[in-house]
Structure formats: structure tokens, C-alpha cells
From TrEMBL:
Gene3D superfamilies: 3.10.450.50. PANTHER family: ADENYLATE CYCLASE-ASSOCIATED CAP C-TERMINAL DOMAIN-CONTAINING PROTEIN (PTHR33747:SF1), UPF0225 PROTEIN SCO1677 (PTHR33747). This is SEC-C motif-containing protein. It comes from Cuneatibacter caecimuris.
Length: 167
């Protein structure tokens, strides 16, 4: 069983009670926050084996696996998370804007509100990314077509006698 399969088996355990599930995720989110605080403060891209990075951030290999699973879509080069083991070389070189956008999408306010973002993205740019992400999930309806309005298909007929007919 790969590290990722083990992580997902634990993280999404259907046999866990609601309290066990919430406790697991609350603990993980605290670990994740600490890891992001450290990662965002790094000046050079972070690379190493899964085990080395787990040791560097003071977490176990399973927590590191969860972190790698979560950040993978925001990395400059994806890691082989599906097949990795403790000795797999991985990179945490991320795209700041993509990472911020994905954190907003995940509704992870404890991450996208970290003070470390101040040195990576301007406040204005963070607001733009926030708005961009939020508007990407908003459904905008077009103007309502009245029964006696010209049909939008271009037939020249009234809407009620064309595409708006009850069939």
C-alpha cells in the first residue's frame, strides 16, 4: 500500500465516528498551518525526500503525505504522490498565486490569512485573487426574456411563438 493510499485511508476513514473524524482533521489543520508558516517563510525552494521533509517540519511521514497531497496542484512541478514512499525525492516549489487561489477555493482561511503572505503577494493582488476565485463559482443568469420579446434565436418571431413555446 502506497503512502498516499495509507493517508487517504486514514483521513477519509468511513468507519470513524464523527468526533474521531473532526478530531483528526482539527489536529491535521493545526499541523498544516505550522508547515505553511514555515514553507512560506522559506527563501529558497524546498526539496528532499518525504522522510527528510517530514523531519525538517517536525511531523510524521503520514502528515507530510497529506501535506504533499494538498499542495500538489499548486506546485511548479507535480510530485509522484501516487507512487511515492519515504525515500522519494519531492519538491515543494510552489506558484504563490496558484497556491493562494487554491487556498481560497478550499475555504482554508487559516492558511490564506497567514501573515507570511505579506512578503509574497501584495494585499491588492490577494484581494484580486480572492475575488477571481469567488466569482469563478458564481452562477450568473442572463436577462429574462419576456413572452412578447423577439426570440433570441434570430427567427424574427416573438419568443412565445418560437423557442418559448410549450411543447
Amino acid at each position: 500500500m502506497t503512502l498516499l493510499e495509507q493517508w487517504r485511508g486514514t483521513a477519509y476513514n468511513e468507519n470513524a465516528s464523527r468526533q474521531e473524524y473532526e478530531t483528526f482533521w482539527n489536529n491535521y489543520f493545526a499541523i498544516e498551518k505550522n508547515m505553511y508558516e514555515a514553507l512560506l517563510a522559506e527563501e529558497q525552494p524546498v526539496k528532499g525526500t518525504v522522510k527528510e521533509l517530514a523531519d525538517k517540519y517536525g511531523v510524521d511521514v503520514m502528515a507530510m503525505t497529506g501535506f504533499l497531497d494538498g499542495i500538489d496542484e499548486s506546485l511548479k512541478t507535480a510530485n509522484p504522490i501516487e507512487t511515492m514512499d519515504e525515500n522519494t525525492e519531492v519538491s515543494l516549489e510552489y506558484e504563490p498565486e496558484k497556491l493562494y487561489y487554491n487556498m481560497v477555493e478550499a475555504r482554508a482561511s487559516w492558511l490564506y490569512e497567514l501573515p507570511q503572505w505579506d512578503s509574497l503577494l501584495t494585499e491588492e493582488r490577494r484581494k484580486e485573487l480572492y475575488k477571481e476565485q469567488k466569482s469563478s463559482t458564481t452562477i450568473v443568469k442572463g436577462p429574462k426574456i419576456g413572452r412578447n420579446d423577439p426570440c433570441p434565436c434570430g427567427s424574427g418571431k416573438k419568443y412565445k411563438h418560437c423557442c418559448g413555446r410549450n411543447k
